[in-house]
């Protein structure tokens, strides 16, 4: 792993544990065993590092969601996509990363730093999910996709904020609803 990637991974871990605003660059340097100069060689400032951390988290989410691409039948494809989404959000070692991701997207200061990246991620999700609903013959795949994504966001938020959230039961009801 090169130094730039190491910085991003350490920053992701520390931001997830302590928050963006409460994690000084010096702590990232100490944990990564690198100098501040090296951080600022790769990133103009801490905000640019946050943007790269957000891109890194997006890659983690996308990697986790890839399993739905291997199912060819439409009904199975939607169910596989739902399983993939729920599997991704319930990976124990990703919980803090997903909590941090949620925090970045709703906090006005951090949201302003990554708003274009949030929009880009959402557009990609909208297009791929809409294509599934379109292939299933939904009369209004655009609206159904927006509803589907909003429900997933709400489920994810509740799961991340509540330790006793019944995620597996909700997964089964979600599959019944959409499949």
TrEMBL record:
Pfam families listed in its UniProt record: TetR_N
PROSITE patterns documented for this protein: HTH_TETR_2
Keyword presence, Glycosyltransferase: no
Keywords in alphabetical order: DNA-binding
Boundaries of every HTH tetR-type domain copy: 1-61
Residue spans binding DNA: 24-43
Keyword DNA-binding: yes
Single GO MF annotation: DNA binding
SUPFAM superfamilies in the cross-refs: Homeodomain-like, Tetracyclin repressor-like, C-terminal domain
The protein, known as: TetR/AcrR family transcriptional regulator
Species classification: Bacteria, Pseudomonadati, Pseudomonadota, Gammaproteobacteria, Vibrionales
